[in-house]
Amino acid sequence: MTTSFISDQDFTTPAHIRAAPPEERGPASEAKSASRVLLTVTFLAAVWLVVSAVPFGYIGAGRYDVFWSDAVTGITIAIVTTIRLLHPRAVAFGWVTGGLSGWLLVAPLVLQFGWSTSTANDIIVGLIILVCAALAPSDERE
Protein backbone atom coordinates (compact mmCIF):
# COMPACT_ATOMS: atom_id res chain seq x y z
CA MET A 1 0.00 0.00 0.00
CA THR A 2 1.40 3.35 -1.05
CA THR A 3 0.16 6.58 0.51
CA SER A 4 0.10 10.12 -0.78
CA PHE A 5 2.51 12.57 0.85
CA ILE A 6 -0.26 15.20 0.91
CA SER A 7 -3.18 13.40 2.49
CA ASP A 8 -1.59 10.23 3.88
CA GLN A 9 -4.32 8.20 2.21
CA ASP A 10 -3.97 5.03 0.22
CA PHE A 11 -4.14 5.92 -3.48
CA THR A 12 -3.11 2.61 -5.03
CA THR A 13 -6.12 0.57 -3.90
CA PRO A 14 -9.26 1.27 -5.98
CA ALA A 15 -12.04 3.13 -4.18
CA HIS A 16 -14.57 0.32 -4.61
CA ILE A 17 -12.25 -2.00 -2.69
CA ARG A 18 -11.51 0.57 0.05
CA ALA A 19 -15.21 1.24 0.66
CA ALA A 20 -16.91 -0.96 3.20
CA PRO A 21 -19.47 -3.38 1.76
CA PRO A 22 -23.15 -2.65 2.64
CA GLU A 23 -23.34 -5.53 5.13
CA GLU A 24 -20.50 -3.99 7.15
CA ARG A 25 -22.02 -0.49 7.26
CA GLY A 26 -24.78 -1.38 9.72
CA PRO A 27 -28.25 0.00 10.45
CA ALA A 28 -26.97 3.44 11.49
CA SER A 29 -25.81 4.07 7.94
CA GLU A 30 -29.19 3.00 6.55
CA ALA A 31 -31.03 5.34 8.94
CA LYS A 32 -28.74 8.20 7.93
CA SER A 33 -29.41 7.45 4.26
CA ALA A 34 -33.19 7.35 4.81
CA SER A 35 -33.01 10.61 6.73
CA ARG A 36 -31.09 12.26 3.90
CA VAL A 37 -33.70 11.12 1.38
CA LEU A 38 -36.51 12.57 3.50
CA LEU A 39 -34.62 15.83 3.99
CA THR A 40 -33.94 16.02 0.25
CA VAL A 41 -37.66 15.57 -0.48
CA THR A 42 -38.38 18.32 2.06
CA PHE A 43 -35.86 20.61 0.39
CA LEU A 44 -37.33 19.97 -3.07
CA ALA A 45 -40.86 20.59 -1.78
CA ALA A 46 -39.68 23.91 -0.32
CA VAL A 47 -38.11 24.89 -3.63
CA TRP A 48 -41.35 23.96 -5.39
CA LEU A 49 -43.27 26.13 -2.93
CA VAL A 50 -41.18 29.16 -3.91
CA VAL A 51 -41.15 28.42 -7.64
CA SER A 52 -44.86 27.53 -7.86
CA ALA A 53 -45.86 31.19 -7.64
CA VAL A 54 -44.96 31.54 -11.32
CA PRO A 55 -47.10 28.78 -12.90
CA PHE A 56 -50.00 29.41 -10.53
CA GLY A 57 -49.89 33.17 -11.17
CA TYR A 58 -50.25 34.43 -7.60
CA ILE A 59 -48.98 37.90 -8.48
CA GLY A 60 -50.97 38.11 -11.71
CA ALA A 61 -54.12 37.40 -9.70
CA GLY A 62 -53.20 40.11 -7.19
CA ARG A 63 -52.57 37.59 -4.40
CA TYR A 64 -49.45 39.11 -2.91
CA ASP A 65 -50.32 37.69 0.51
CA VAL A 66 -50.27 34.16 -0.90
CA PHE A 67 -47.06 34.85 -2.80
CA TRP A 68 -45.21 36.25 0.21
CA SER A 69 -46.51 33.56 2.54
CA ASP A 70 -45.32 30.79 0.23
CA ALA A 71 -42.05 32.51 -0.67
CA VAL A 72 -40.99 33.25 2.91
CA THR A 73 -42.12 29.84 4.18
CA GLY A 74 -40.44 28.00 1.29
CA ILE A 75 -37.15 29.86 1.63
CA THR A 76 -37.13 29.33 5.40
CA ILE A 77 -37.84 25.60 5.07
CA ALA A 78 -35.09 25.30 2.43
CA ILE A 79 -32.58 27.03 4.73
CA VAL A 80 -33.57 24.96 7.76
CA THR A 81 -33.41 21.74 5.73
CA THR A 82 -29.98 22.66 4.39
CA ILE A 83 -28.81 23.19 7.96
CA ARG A 84 -30.25 19.80 8.94
CA LEU A 85 -28.48 18.14 6.00
CA LEU A 86 -25.15 19.71 6.93
CA HIS A 87 -25.51 19.29 10.72
CA PRO A 88 -27.57 16.15 11.44
CA ARG A 89 -27.56 16.78 15.19
CA ALA A 90 -29.51 20.03 14.87
CA VAL A 91 -32.50 18.62 16.77
CA ALA A 92 -34.52 21.83 17.16
CA PHE A 93 -34.72 22.43 13.43
CA GLY A 94 -37.00 19.42 13.01
CA TRP A 95 -39.57 21.25 15.10
CA VAL A 96 -39.14 24.41 13.03
CA THR A 97 -39.84 22.44 9.85
CA GLY A 98 -42.92 20.88 11.45
CA GLY A 99 -44.20 24.27 12.56
CA LEU A 100 -43.70 25.81 9.14
CA SER A 101 -45.50 22.91 7.47
CA GLY A 102 -48.32 23.47 9.97
CA TRP A 103 -48.45 27.09 8.81
CA LEU A 104 -48.82 25.86 5.23
CA LEU A 105 -51.84 23.81 6.30
CA VAL A 106 -53.61 26.68 8.08
CA ALA A 107 -52.50 29.57 5.82
CA PRO A 108 -55.43 29.12 3.40
CA LEU A 109 -57.83 29.63 6.32
CA VAL A 110 -55.92 32.47 7.97
CA LEU A 111 -55.22 34.40 4.75
CA GLN A 112 -58.59 33.39 3.20
CA PHE A 113 -57.27 31.99 -0.06
CA GLY A 114 -60.62 30.50 -0.97
CA TRP A 115 -60.58 27.18 -2.79
CA SER A 116 -57.98 27.61 -5.52
CA THR A 117 -54.81 26.08 -6.86
CA SER A 118 -52.84 27.96 -4.21
CA THR A 119 -54.92 26.30 -1.48
CA ALA A 120 -54.39 22.85 -2.95
CA ASN A 121 -50.69 23.56 -3.45
CA ASP A 122 -50.19 24.71 0.15
CA ILE A 123 -52.08 21.74 1.59
CA ILE A 124 -50.28 19.15 -0.55
CA VAL A 125 -46.81 20.63 0.02
CA GLY A 126 -47.58 21.14 3.73
CA LEU A 127 -48.58 17.49 4.12
CA ILE A 128 -45.49 16.27 2.24
CA ILE A 129 -43.18 18.37 4.41
CA LEU A 130 -45.01 17.41 7.62
CA VAL A 131 -44.76 13.69 6.84
CA CYS A 132 -41.06 14.01 5.94
CA ALA A 133 -40.38 16.01 9.12
CA ALA A 134 -42.18 13.40 11.22
CA LEU A 135 -40.40 10.44 9.64
CA ALA A 136 -36.89 11.91 9.55
CA PRO A 137 -34.98 11.09 12.71
CA SER A 138 -34.20 14.33 14.49
CA ASP A 139 -31.08 13.10 16.30
CA GLU A 140 -28.48 11.04 14.50
CA ARG A 141 -25.48 9.57 16.21
CA GLU A 142 -22.40 9.50 14.07
TrEMBL record:
Residues annotated as transmembrane: 37-60, 66-86, 93-113, 119-136
InterPro entries, sorted: SPW
Keywords: Membrane, Transmembrane, Transmembrane helix
Domain SPW repeat-containing integral membrane: 41-134
Official protein name in the record: SPW repeat-containing integral membrane domain-containing protein
